[in-house]
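Fold sample X.
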Amino acid sequence: MIDLLKKNILIIILFSITLFITVKTFQFEYLPSKASYQFFVHFEINKNATLQETESKALELGELLLDFPKNEIRSFNTEIGIDKSKRDHGISNKSANKGVLFVNLSLFNERKRSTIQIMNDFRKRSQNISGIKKLNVSKRGIGPNSQKPIEIIVSGNNHLQRKKLSDRIYS
């Protein structure tokens, strides 16, 4: 009986040591940051800025993205005059100075750098652009409960119709 107990303890110790060495040797992330495929760049310029001035800054930020390696940035698009944080559902004078870039990355097995590394590089490069008062670069989450359960996008050329429909959906 004691020999069996010693044998079981020895097996448990060997298993624990093997598990410890394996965990320390191999880097493993359940949801690796490199696997994230999109990040956002929210920016704000002078409060009295026009949409044209905001567009100009958005173009400068977009130019930075064009300088990244082709295997990292798949595409990006820009929205200006929209303050998504206040749910104003469209263009208004109070948000004419704000914009957001949606940056779509290549698949993580097609690039060498992680999403965080690319975002940090973008932050560093964007420091050279004058006139930007606030810049927030954030990663789109992956995995369970990282996204909204449902997303509805209302688009069109008529701002009043978009706002009415958006308000109806939101209420």
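Fold sample Y, listed below.
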Amino acid sequence: MKLVHNVFDVQQYLDIKQQAFLSFSQDSDEYWTNHDVWSANLKDGIDGTVLCQHVSDKYNKIIAECIKPHLPEWDGEYDMMWYVWDKGSGINWHNDLPHKFAATIYLNDNWPKEHGGVFLWQEHKTYDIHGWLPKANTMVVNDHGEQHYVTPITSNALVCRHTIQIFPRES
């Protein structure tokens, strides 16, 4: 598991974040939820809703240019989605396989640990469990198929948790 700080320069980050926050209101009929597509094991014991929407081609290209140096070698394109994690949402333990890698970019400026949404992962060599609190403009890259989990967002969270999810596009 790899953590990359300051994935975008400040202006890019602000522009991407604004687009992420606006995309659901602009294209309200072009989204799906975790209940529609995630397998049962990913939702087991987690009842909240994650809204999902593909990142536009324009922003996919901008984001890809910024993240490519931090990802495992990949000559193809990327599938990118905006995710909005509502109260009660999270994702159960999984490893992202069969994808070669997966990445998450955090978009919330401040995320209190009391609101859940903490990223936990189990190191593949030692089996130790580590945790990272979402931090704006930071990317987590799962480049070894490690088990990870997002703790459910608490009922007292004041805002939704916003991320960009990235996977290599398989032909």
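Sample Y note: The mean pLDDT is 94.
Also: The longest strand covers residues 78-85.
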